Amino acid sequence: MWASGRNVLRLCVGIAACANLPVSSAFAQGYPVKPIRMVLGFSAGGLSDVLARLLAPKLSEHLGQPLVVENRPGASGSIATQRVATSPADGYTLLLMTAADTVTPALRAKLPYDLERDFAPVTLVVIAPFVLLVHPSVPARNVKELIALARSRPGKLSYGSVGAGSTPHLAGELLKVMAKVDVVNVPYKGGADNVIAAASGQVDMSFASIPSLLPLLEAGRIRPLAVTSAKRASLLPALPTLDESGFRGYDRSSWQGVLAPAGTPKDIVARLGAAFGKVVDSPEMNQALIKQGLEPQTNTPDEFAAFIRRELAKNAELIKLIGAKAE
What we know:
Elements: H1 2-19, H2 23-29, E1 36-40, H3 47-63, E2 67-71, H4 78-85, E3 93-98, H5 104-107, E4 119-128, E5 130-134, H6 143-152, E6 158-161, H7 167-179, E7 184-187, H8 191-199, E8 205-209, H9 210-218, E9 223-227, E10 254-261, H10 266-280, H11 283-291, E11 295-296, H12 301-322
Parallel strand pairs: 1-2, 1-3, 6-7, 6-8
Antiparallel strand pairs: 3-10, 4-10, 4-11, 5-8, 5-9
């Protein structure tokens, strides 16, 4: 009888010990066992959509399950962000976030989610530099000459962007602050309208994505002066950065990365990060992304979390400085 009781006791202790094992490890061993959904806050055909659909087939191969792209446009990406924030923390719903997600909190006082509290960073995926360009009639062959021109004509020159808080807008405002110049911002509905405005002379200069400006560049309708990223763009290696052009520390690009809901087991986050790293860092995908004007760049969950914190802080500081408001 006592032996039987001891066996029962051992069984109970064993069950208790198993119950206290990290759930993440046990759960992650079989992950994934069903399709994974990657949500993005923009319509089909945009840069985020192109990126997601480039990555999805290769990620499906590495993970052994389909990766389904779900477009949830609206509210500057906030609808998609909230959708993922309130999803189960099981690794089956991910957010393809953009740099804009770290601007929104500085523009809107009340959001139904918190980027740092409600998400588990997985990895950065790409950096998307912008190009400072001018209309050919502008008498400036480099950034130094452009700034000198702007200082000689305060309030007379204009630059195109795609709305308050957008990356092109913040790129322009940061340059204005660092160069101490007065240049008028002219917002357009989209990136294509923005670059066309510069090519047609509606504005003197613009900050444009690389894919949108290439046809106009080849036609000689615009003159590129510098890229906004910390490093030169792979697709335009001869073009200097703004940092190299005299504005030390200037770095203002768009970027995209992956988040999971907060509480997602660390083993699953690590598995996802490794899969994205293998796909993005492969020579084939590297070339495909560079052709889209994107710079492949992955990192660890901790590194991505630190990156997001820095972006939130610098965006809040710049938004406050220039007094930008949500449109």
